[in-house]
Specification:
The chain has about 210 residues and is mainly β. It has one helix and 17 strands. The longest helix has 20 residues.
């Protein structure tokens, strides 16, 4: 391969990457309660109406420390493996009875050798069989386009290709088995904003 051809091929790769990024949009979402107070730790995700094939879900981690699960709320794509390292001063017994992923990690310290594969979409509530106050939530979604709201109730979801999506929001304070709040949207090349309202009272909200 000549130097000039390598330069040409490299240029094509850069151009393709630029075209791909230029055609992708970012949606900025705000989640609030009915009074307009921001809701933190809401799972927000955009499901393509026609799901893409393939994809490489990432790994994730939920730590045990100070007799708490950290983070309290985790959002992952279907097919993600989650590890549960126990960095606490006591042993824990992690379990879930949720239909989306029942599992059990019996009394242990350190990091279990095999992470747990979350292979079905849905809500997974985890607890500790030794410490009843310990609880955390995992929202498993069938899309790579997801995020979690911050203290201002906002989250940005990037790299959305043109097409139709269902934008959904879920929070662990929603009554079970309430479905996520959702709205349809059409994505072009321009960045977008959206607002979703959940029927819960935000922490620290107006009374």
């Amino acid at each position: 391969m000549t130097f000039r051809f390598r330069q040409f091929a490299s240029g094509l790769t850069i151009l393709a990457a630029f075209i791909g990024s230029a055609s992708a949009a970012t949606i900025s979402v705000k989640v609030a309660d009915a009074a307009g107070n921001p809701i933190q730790d809401a799972a927000v995700y955009a499901e393509p109406v026609t799901p893409p094939s393939g994809g490489r879900p990432k790994t994730a981690e939920i730590e045990q420390k100070s007799r708490k699960f950290m983070p309290l709320m985790t959002v992952v794509q279907t097919g993600t493996e989650i590890s549960f390292p126990n960095n606490d001063t006591v042993r824990h017994h992690v379990y879930s009875f949720s239909p989306a992923k029942p599992f059990e990690l019996k009394l242990y310290s350190g990091t279990p050798g095999t992470p747990i594969l979350f292979d079905k979409p849905g809500t997974v509530v985890i607890g500790c069989n030794i410490h009843d106050q310990m609880v955390a939530y995992i929202q498993v979604v069938g899309t790579p386009h997801f995020g979690k709201t911050d203290q201002t109730g906002k989250v940005s979801i990037a790299d959305l290709g043109p097409g139709k999506y269902r934008l959904k929001a879920w929070h662990y304070q929603l009554p079970s088995p309430a479905a996520p709040v959702e709205t349809d949207l059409s994505v072009a090349k321009n960045d977008m904003t959206a607002n979703l309202v959940l029927n819960i009272k935000a922490a620290g909200g107006s009374h």
